[in-house]
Amino acid sequence: MSAGDELVARYDAAGAVVGKATRAEVRAEGLWHAAGVVLVRSGDGERAYVHLRSPDKDIYPSAHDCWAGGVVAAGETPAECAARELAEELGIEGAVLRPLFIHVFDQPPVRCHNFAFEVRWDGPIVHQPEEIVSGAWMPMAELRRWADDPDSPLIPDGRLGILEWFRRFG
């Protein structure tokens, strides 16, 4: 099965699960869906892990992101999705996910409810080469500067999410 054939949970504009569709249908038709996204911060909370997305990504290729994550699969909860994506993308397993908030990104064709979580992690990070080119720890103050700059290399929904994080916690 190709990535486009993957079954994704469909959501409505209010954030309720209403069915399922293929990833290709969600992208082509701009359907509402959800993602589980995780901000990985160092154990002391002073840095966040920022990575460069692969040029092969179906959305926002070759851009930077401070959230590990992906779309919620049909039959999966956002927390299950976040844990799965964290393990797949960064090789982080066993870290305790702390729920943060839900932020809505509605810039068609991307219409998504992002269920945001945070982990503290000082262990090894192993990139999934199909999704991540490189990554590094960034001081939170520098990430704040990137978030505040609309021309920064952060992906649009990731930028919105980290701005919300700084509004609430920073």
Report on the structure:
The structure is a single chain. By secondary structure, the protein is an alpha+beta fold. It has one domain (3-169): Nucleoside Triphosphate Pyrophosphohydrolase (Alpha-Beta Complex), CATH 3.90.79. It has helices spanning 23-29, 78-90, 140-148, 156-169, and strands at 7-11, 17-22, 32-41, 47-53, 64-65, 67-71, 98-107, 110-120, 132-139. The strands form 3 sheets. The protein has a 4-stranded mixed β-sheet with strand order 6-3-8-7, with helices on both faces. A 3-stranded antiparallel β-sheet has the order 5-4-9. A hairpin with a 2-residue loop joins strand 7 and strand 8. The N and C termini lie far apart (42 Å).
Structural class: alpha+beta
The top level CATH class name:
Alpha Beta
Shape designation: globular
As laid out across the biggest beta sheet, the strand order is 6-3-8-7
Poorly predicted sequence stretches spanning 5 or more consecutive residues: none
The helix content, as a percent range, equals: 25-40%
Sheet with the most strands? 4 strands, mixed
Total individual domains: 1
Hey, roughly how much beta strand do the residues contain? 35-45%
- Oligomerization state: single chain
Number of E-state strands = 9
CATH third-tier fold name: Nucleoside Triphosphate Pyrophosphohydrolase
Order of SSEs: EEHEEEEHEEEHH
Radius of gyration, CA atoms, in whole angstroms: 15 Å
Mean of the pLDDT scores?
Answer: 96
CATH superfamily: Nucleoside Triphosphate Pyrophosphohydrolase
Q: Count of DSSP helices?
A: 4
Q: Specify the CATH architecture.
A: Alpha-Beta Complex
Q: For the terminal residues, how far apart are their CA atoms?
A: 42 Å
